[in-house]
Design brief:
mainly alpha, Fumarase C, Chain A, domain 2, two-stranded antiparallel ribbon, 59% helix
Amino acid sequence: MSFTLASSSLLAPLVGDVELAALFDAPADHAAMLAFERELAAAQAGLGLMPADAARALGQTLTELTAARAPPALEFVRDGLAAPAWVEAIRERLAPELRAHFHRGVTSQDLVDSSLMLRAKQAFALLAARLAALEDRLERLSARHGERRLDGRTRLQRAQPIRVADRLAVWQQGLAGAAGRIAALDFPVQLGGPVGTLASFGPHGNALRAALAQRLALSDPGLCWHAAREPVVRLAETASVLTGALGKLGLDAGLMAQNGIDELTLVDGGRSSSMAHKRNPVHAEILVALARHNAGLLGGAHQALLHEQERSGAAWTLEWLTLPPMIVGAGAATRHAELLLDSIDRLGR
């Protein structure tokens, strides 16, 4: 399960991202959970833990259900998550002879965490592509304006002259750092069973986890991470680094566009309700706000490292409140950075 808070009809266009938010909505979660259950059955059959014909029939039914509407999570408040009600609703749609094979040996956390990793992998692939496009834009700006002059500033005071290319190089360095973090990310499958020991699968537990990871194109972590949440925190840290790099770009751009500084000219800007002459650097401002917002949420993600004993409900819920909004915020930042860079008419003197 997952949430994004950038769903207000007023704020979502400003601080949200439709493409990334869709990955954390019910239909995407439904499809990812069905993929987990389908590939789990196939992996079990491959190890002789389920009859092959049952796995094929189950896989076919679950594939057909992927296009169906996700069952309503009516018991979310009672259970603390939608998975138990979801499993029950899917089981009711199966042929009676398949019901005992569905979701056998696993627990809600295996299902939910693996679904999250499947969708997070898609999300960061999108972010990586957008970062590459932003780096191309910076290269073009450097080619066009790079030899122009700027006042280098330290601690907000004029220091020594620099070139536009020098400042753009720092922006590029930040984007390259974020892209490198994304490339190094790991998206592990989750499989541990009720208390993380894989006891339900006897001596086949490790082989089943490896087979499931391969079928889902996720990594095999070599263990259960029900209560060891570094994989989730690394995603949050990467989202924060990305928005931080773009926030640096936005902060510099906003200062450069100030009246009296005039080192950056935008072809358009936000309007004032009372001062017709103003053109506010809205995209730059939003980049700064998103960077600070994600930096604040990152503390919550680190708090979620405190998963008590074998599994936690409170820390798990805290992850849902922090990670998806951070990823969506990173997407919004890439969108505003694109709009900002495309609106630059002049850099330097």
